[in-house]
Every structure is written in C-alpha cells, then in structure tokens.
C-alpha cells in the first residue's frame, strides 16, 4: 500500500466514524428501514473510498447525501425493473421460465441497459426497447408512440449512439 492510499483509508475511516450514524439516520428516515439504511450507508462509504482523492472532499455530508440518494434511487429502479420482469414472467408458460441463474443474468442485463439508456427521453427509450425487444418496425413504433417515422429514426439514432459509445468505452 502506498502512503497516499494509507492516508486515504485513514481519512475515510475517520469520516466513517464521524458521519456513519448521521447518514444511517438520514437514510433511515427516507426509507423507513434501518437495515436498508445501514446497507446504503456502508455502500456510500465504499464509493467514497474508491474515489481518486478523498482528501479533496470539502463538504463530506453533502457528498455522502448525494451518493446515498443515488444509491437509493438505483435500488428503487432495480426493484421496479425486477417487478416488471417478474410480472412478465408470470404471464409466460411455466415451461419457458428461466432458471434462477438465468433470471439474475437477465435482470443484470436489463439494469445495464437501463443505465445505458439513462438520459434519453422516455419516448426514445420506449422506441429503442420496442424495436430491440418486441421487434417492432419503425412504422409500428411511430403508431404506438403517436409520432412520425422520422422522429422514431431520431430516437433510434440517439439510442444507437449511446450503445456505440458504451461499446467503444468498454
């Protein structure tokens, strides 16, 4: 371990001792679940520890609140996505239900796709998903979204650009 990583670890450890209880209380009030709040608070400090320069943090409570809030939102998004996936599975015949391992892979893939498309308008996301998952044509998507075919083309270009940039970065 380098001396800078030891000092970062010490700094984050001190921040943890000072702010963990406060952060758990703040998250706990928002979630209504002390155990979930502890999980979120712990993950928040792991994210702080992974930062390149924790010594540069000037407003620790503001940073901790921001990270924790994002983690809470990510959790809610995951729950919504899992619920939608399991609802769609309930409609499928039992013979085609995936194994638990396959379900986990599908959920992780859906979460990755959701993060990838984050920032697109709801209609652009819907257009991309209709095309990729439901194999709808641009004309069918335009009818469903009540927009022009050229607008669907624009939505698809935005989504494909995000996919390309993500692949290029990987």
From TrEMBL:
Chain ranges of the RNA polymerase sigma factor 70 region 4 type domain: 112-163
Pfam family, any one: Sigma70_r4_2
Keyword Transcription: yes
InterPro entries, alphabetized: RNA_pol_sigma-70-like (IPR039425), RNA_pol_sigma-70_dom (IPR014284), RNA_pol_sigma70_r2 (IPR007627), RNA_pol_sigma70_r4_t2 (IPR013249), RNA_pol_sigma_r2 (IPR013325), RNA_pol_sigma_r3/r4-like (IPR013324), WH-like_DNA-bd_sf (IPR036388)
Keyword Transcription tagged: yes
Keywords: Sigma factor, Transcription, Transcription regulation
All copies of domain RNA polymerase sigma-70 region, residue ranges: 15-80
Superkingdom of origin: Bacteria
Membership in a protein family: Belongs to the sigma-70 factor family. ECF subfamily.
Entries under PANTHER family matching the protein: RNA POLYMERASE ECF-TYPE SIGMA FACTO, RNA POLYMERASE SIGMA FACTOR FECI-RELATED
Name of the protein: Sigma-70 family RNA polymerase sigma factor
Species annotation: Pseudomonas carassii
Lineage: Bacteria, Pseudomonadati, Pseudomonadota, Gammaproteobacteria, Pseudomonadales
């Amino acid at each position: 371990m380098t001396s800078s990583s030891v000092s970062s670890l010490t700094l984050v450890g001190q921040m943890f001792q000072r702010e963990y209880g406060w952060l758990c209380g703040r998250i706990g009030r928002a979630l209504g679940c002390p155990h979930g709040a502890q999980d979120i608070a712990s993950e928040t400090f792991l994210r702080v520890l992974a930062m390149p320069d924790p010594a540069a943090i000037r407003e620790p409570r503001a940073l901790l609140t921001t990270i924790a809030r994002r983690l809470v939102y990510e959790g809610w998004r995951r729950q919504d996505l899992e619920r939608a996936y399991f609802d769609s599975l309930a409609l499928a015949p039992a013979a085609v239900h995936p194994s638990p391992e396959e379900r986990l892979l599908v959920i992780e893939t859906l979460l990755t796709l959701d993060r990838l498309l984050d920032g697109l308008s709801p209609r652009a996301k819907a257009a991309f998903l209709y095309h990729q998952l439901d194999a709808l044509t641009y004309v069918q998507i335009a009818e469903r979204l009540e927009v022009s075919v050229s607008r669907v083309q624009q939505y698809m270009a935005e989504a494909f650009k995000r996919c390309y940039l993500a692949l290029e970065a990987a």
